[in-house]
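Q: Hi! First time doing this. I have a protein sequence and I read that you can turn it into a structure. Is that right? Here it is:
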Amino acid sequence: MSNLNKTAMMKIVKIKENVTRSFAGGEEIESIDNVNYEIRDDNDVRMGEFNAYGGGYSISMNGTSTSIEESIRQVKRLFNINE
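A: Yes, that's right. Below is the predicted 3D structure, encoded as structure tokens:
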């Protein structure tokens, strides 16, 4: 059984934020380009990372499954994919 199945709750912790600051007509305009988070379990152990950016996101999990097949099952569960 994978570590992910044994974990009751997960949390994300912000570790980095990239911001663009520009000036238009003497006025400051600030926008967030992307935000990086660590994914942590109940024991505050880092399980992976999550990156949110304009129009999308990416998730990377480490050591949460014991096989490729288990990883595929986890992704299908995460996104509620039924095949």
